[in-house]
């Protein structure tokens, strides 16, 4: 890039927060994705306290009630389930468990996976060998089978579910992190830091981690959806979330048997899962651009892109 | 209608970028006659490659856009032809070779297959193709031609690959050969051989040669006519000899003045005390000896140049001394203490005193950190050097010292040009006030005029701050201007060492003589004598 380019970048007058908001606004998709995600988080936080009673009340006259009918009140706008409970209220209430399981499992697996990956990639051959064989063991074992065994032994609960799902996803982060570390550590700026006398910790956290962070976040958003569905599979087998507790995944699997007669039972929670994952994806691709100083101008010029 | 072989008339090309339109070339006209070598000279960003890309239909539209002009070949305007007709001309009548032959060849096919494909792609029978390929490989001087056809690209050296690419380009006896920086990635001795080969082939076939380069020496060696470009415009055209001695345009004059190798040679100061004594330093990879017993001293405040071709082990010295790799034997005494046996903790203290500047500033600066973060990282690592409240002032002072502005501190590396980035890297090296800076090809990735500025900066730092340098380079003229003493290396051993004057004026070893003879002089007359002398050698 020439000096000419440097001169056209505007000086930063706004606060950091203000800059991020304006960069978010520059990418409309990311903006709406963020809005949607905030809504979901809000549901997860206050939904159960507001609608828990409504969501659990059976109304046999509203069994498999069709959507878009307002006769029974607004909570039945999306229809009713097999026991006549309002779908809308159930989706809002289920956000809490779903988010807790998915976010918890993803956060746990990314933390453990990335840490082990950094160790395997940066330290010598032996730690790397041990950690990689450990990852191979997990990967060679069918993850659902592992989950079934563990959850039969342990008590099925939200905490145990998070742990089991996290364990099965660790190798993905571990292998990606290790591969990226092996590449980034050979880059010249890492050597420049070594020459300056930087400690291993500094090199890992200051130089290597920021380079691989966007990749990890992208995988994490994709994994979010996978974890939600895996949780529903476990719930379907009766070893995940136990009714009357609900999650979106559980709602999808409960609605599956009525697919031909009452599609909305599985459709609405499925749609929410798709929208949530898609929003996370859009947000992560925005974040990748916003966190990269060489790409940030695309958002800072405010949509006047020429490509 | 003209009688030129190829004529570019009033060509303008612009590119669509985020900052609006950028004119890559502006109203450019030049022509090429049969049997002639035209050199297009320019620095990076001058648009020297754009007109040839237009000839070869290599400009992507969009983002590129040819706004005006015509390219006449055989009385036809190439820009009016459809893609089908252009493909029939490309490779057959007009061929091109590139800077990096490794990326030009497909690594999964044999070299013979790829040369044959060029021939068969234009409709010749396979049997003829094999014979033609063999003939070509023989002609460009590859040892064991029959065997070479069945080898893969990675089995050849850089110079051989460049020869093979030339063979491939010549497969269909083109009328025009366009060579884009064909020797930039090669060692000097190999560069001289490849240029000689191109010259001979041109005499045999009578083709027109367009040579795109940034190197005045290459121009002086082979060009019949010269076009100088700056910022997308042609600033000067003429015979190289006339332009060299009587340049009209200020830019051309600046370019010629910036060519290194004409300054006064420095004399080493024998009274200075040695600070780094390297004794019998070795490095082997399995049975391959990258360094076999290298011994030398660096004195306080002196500049020691280490020159040699690729694979001579010159960079390995730097990596071993700085403990980026572990050595296989020998000692490196820094003020009497062996660097090679220190624990990481002891080494961390010494690192303050020895710093390094890398070849490619684009890669040696973390792209996610601001200039302030990059420079101040040194003080974050060595806490006792400077209290945190003084960091900002010191960064600004350092930026000023290397010729950048204090306001640049908040920018990121990609917002600077290559030369500016190298200045940032130098400022980072200075942050710890080192006594020795190791420069590993620190200026070889830069344009000539930028190179001269960076060398001047390093010279100033040496005089003002008394810093000693180990200056690793393959470019002899730069070394001649900057160093006090020179080590000449080959295959992991020191061939010859001495003061700059001894090495450049009275080399003793044949290898040093060959190396010096292969260097190109920017003055066409001098270069002609040199070429004759080298061929006689």
TrEMBL record, chain A:
Gene Ontology cellular-component annotations? plasma membrane
PANTHER family hit by this protein: D,D-DIPEPTIDE TRANSPORT SYSTEM PERMEASE PROTEIN DDPC-RELATED (PTHR43386:SF1), OLIGOPEPTIDE TRANSPORT SYSTEM PERMEASE PROTEIN APPC (PTHR43386)
SUPFAM superfamilies listed in its UniProt record? MetI-like
Whether Transport counts among this entry's keywords is: yes
Compartment(s) of residence: Cell membrane
Question: Where does the record place the ABC transmembrane type-1 domain?
Answer: 95-284
Q: By its UniProt entry, which PROSITE patterns does this protein fall under?
A: ABC_TM1
Q: Which UniProt keywords apply?
A: Cell membrane, Membrane, Peptide transport, Protein transport, Transmembrane, Transmembrane helix, Transport
UniProt KW Cell membrane keyword: yes
Primary location group:
membrane
Its membrane topology, per UniProt? Multi-pass membrane protein
Q: Which family does it belong to?
A: Belongs to the binding-protein-dependent transport system permease family.
Gene Ontology BP terms: peptide transport; protein transport; transmembrane transport
Which residue windows are transmembrane per the record?
A: 29-51, 100-124, 144-168, 212-241, 261-283
Show the CDD domains listed in the entry: TM_PBP2 (cd06261)
Descriptive protein name: Putative D,D-dipeptide transport system permease protein DdpC
* InterPro entries from the UniProt entry: BP-dependent_transpt_permease, MetI-like, MetI-like_sf
UniProtKB/TrEMBL annotation, chain B:
UniProt keyword annotation of Transport present: yes
Question: Per its record, what are the GO molecular function terms?
Answer: ATP binding; ATP hydrolysis activity
Query: In which family does this protein belong, per the annotation?
Result: Belongs to the ABC transporter superfamily.
Checking CDD domains in the record gives: ABC_NikE_OppD_transporters
Q: The ABC transporter domain covers which part of the protein?
A: 8-256, 276-516
Q: Which domain of life is it from?
A: Bacteria
Q: Which gene encodes it?
A: gsiA_2
Reported EC number(s) for this entry are 3.6.3.-
Q: Give the UniProt entry's GO cellular component terms.
A: plasma membrane
Topology of the protein relative to the lipid bilayer: Peripheral membrane protein
Q: Where in the cell is it found?
A: Cell inner membrane
Q: Which residues form the signal peptide?
A: none
Q: What is this protein called?
A: Glutathione import ATP-binding protein GsiA
Task: Indicate whether Hydrolase appears among the record's keywords.
Answer: yes
Q: In Gene Ontology terms, what is a biological process of this protein?
A: peptide transport
UniProt entry keywords in alphabetical sequence? ATP-binding, Hydrolase, Nucleotide-binding, Transport
Q: Name one Pfam family in it.
A: oligo_HPY
Q: What class of enzyme is it?
A: hydrolase
Extract the InterPro entries matched here.
Answer: AAA+_ATPase, ABC_transp_ATP-bind, ABC_transporter-like_ATP-bd, ABC_transporter-like_CS, Oligopep_ABC_C, P-loop_NTPase
């Amino acid at each position: 890039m020439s000096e000419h380019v440097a001169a056209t970048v505007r000086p930063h007058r706004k606060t950091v927060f203000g800059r991020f908001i304006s960069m978010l606004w520059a990418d409309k998709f990311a903006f709406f994705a963020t809005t949607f995600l905030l809504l979901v988080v809000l549901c997860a936080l206050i939904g159960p306290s507001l609608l828990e009673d409504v969501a659990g009340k059976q109304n046999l006259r509203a069994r498999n009630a069709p959507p878009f009918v307002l006769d029974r009140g607004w909570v039945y706008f999306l229809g009713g389930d097999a026991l006549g409970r309002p779908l809308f209220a159930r989706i809002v209430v289920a956000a809490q468990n779903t988010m807790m399981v998915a976010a918890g499992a993803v956060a746990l697996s990314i933390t453990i996976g990335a840490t082990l990956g950094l160790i395997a990639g940066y330290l010598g051959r032996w730690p790397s060998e041990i950690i990689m064989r450990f990852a191979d063991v997990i990967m060679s074992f069918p993850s659902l089978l592992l989950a079934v065994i563990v959850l039969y032994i342990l008590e099925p609960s939200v905490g145990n579910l998070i742990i089991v799902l996290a364990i099965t996803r660790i190798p993905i982060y571990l292998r990606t992190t290790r591969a990226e570390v092996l590449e980034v550590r050979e880059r010249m700026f890492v050597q420049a830091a070594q020459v300056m006398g930087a400690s291993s910790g500094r090199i890992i956290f200051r130089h290597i981690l920021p380079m691989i962070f966007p990749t990890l976040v992208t995988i994490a958003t994709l994994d979010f959806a996978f974890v939600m569905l895996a949780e529903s599979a476990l719930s379907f087998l009766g070893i995940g979330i136990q009714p009357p507790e609900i999650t979106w995944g559980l709602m999808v699997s409960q609605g599956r048997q009525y697919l031909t007669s009452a599609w909305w039972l599985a459709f609405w929670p499925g749609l929410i899962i798709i929208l949530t994952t898609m929003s996370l994806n859009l947000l992560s691709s925005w974040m990748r651009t916003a966190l990269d100083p060489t790409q940030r101008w695309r958002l800072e010029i405010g949509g006047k892109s020429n490509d | 209608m003209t009688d030129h072989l190829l004529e570019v008339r009033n060509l303008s090309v612009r590119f669509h970028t985020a900052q609006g339109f950028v004119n890559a070339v502006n109203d450019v006209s030049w022509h090429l006659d049969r049997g002639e070598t035209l050199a297009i000279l320019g620095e990076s960003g001058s648009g020297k490659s754009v007109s040839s890309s237009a000839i070869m239909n290599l400009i992507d539209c969009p983002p590129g856009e040819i706004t005006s002009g015509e390219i006449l070949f055989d009385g036809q305007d190439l820009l009016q032809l459809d893609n089908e007709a252009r493909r029939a001309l490309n490779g057959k009548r007009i061929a091109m070779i590139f800077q990096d032959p490794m990326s030009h060849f497909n690594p999964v096919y044999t070299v013979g297959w790829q040369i044959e494909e060029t021939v068969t792609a234009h409709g010749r029978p396979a049997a003829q193709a094999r014979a033609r390929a063999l003939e070509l490989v023989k002609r460009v001087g590859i040892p064991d031609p029959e065997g070479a056809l069945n080898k893969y690209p990675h089995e050849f050296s850089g110079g051989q690959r460049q020869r093979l690419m030339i063979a491939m380009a010549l497969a269909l006896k083109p009328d025009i050969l366009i060579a884009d920086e064909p020797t930039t990635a090669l060692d000097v001795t190999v560069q001289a051989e490849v240029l000689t080969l191109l010259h001979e082939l041109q005499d045999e076939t009578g083709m027109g040669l367009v040579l795109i380069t940034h190197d005045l020496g290459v121009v002086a060696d082979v060009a019949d006519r010269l076009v100088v470009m700056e910022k997308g415009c042609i600033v000067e055209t003429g015979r190289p000899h006339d332009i060299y001695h009587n340049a009209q345009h200020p830019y051309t004059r600046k370019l010629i003045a910036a060519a290194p190798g004409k300054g006064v040679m420095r004399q080493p100061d024998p009274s200075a005390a040695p600070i780094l004594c390297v004794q019998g330093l070795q490095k082997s990879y399995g049975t391959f000896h990258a360094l076999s017993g290298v011994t030398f001293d660096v004195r306080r405040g002196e500049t020691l140049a280490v020159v040699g071709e690729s694979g001579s082990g010159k960079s390995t010295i730097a990596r071993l001394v700085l403990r980026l790799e572990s050595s296989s034997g020998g000692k490196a005494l820094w003020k009497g203490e062996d660097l090679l046996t220190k624990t990481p903790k002891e080494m961390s203290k010494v690192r303050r005193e020895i710093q390094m500047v890398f070849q490619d500033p684009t890669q040696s600066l973390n792209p996610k950190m601001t200039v302030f973060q990059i420079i101040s990282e040194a003080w974050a690592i060595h806490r006792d050097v400077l209290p945190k409240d003084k960091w900002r002032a010191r960064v600004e002072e350092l930026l000023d010292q290397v010729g950048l502005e204090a306001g640049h501190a908040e920018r990121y590396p990609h917002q600077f040009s290559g030369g500016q980035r190298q200045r940032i890297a130098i400022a980072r090296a200075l942050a710890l006030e080192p006594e020795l800076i190791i420069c590993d090809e620190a200026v070889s990735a830069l344009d000539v005029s930028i190179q001269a500025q960076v060398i001047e900066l390093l010279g100033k730092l040496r005089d003002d701050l008394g810093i000693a340098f180990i200056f690793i380079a393959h470019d002899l003229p730069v070394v001649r201007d900057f160093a006090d003493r020179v080590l000449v290396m080959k295959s992991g051993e020191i061939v010859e060492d001495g003061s700059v004057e001894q090495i450049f004026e009275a080399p003793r070893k044949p290898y040093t003589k060959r190396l010096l003879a292969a260097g190109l002089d920017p003055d066409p007359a001098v270069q002609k004598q040199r070429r004759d002398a080298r061929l006689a050698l």
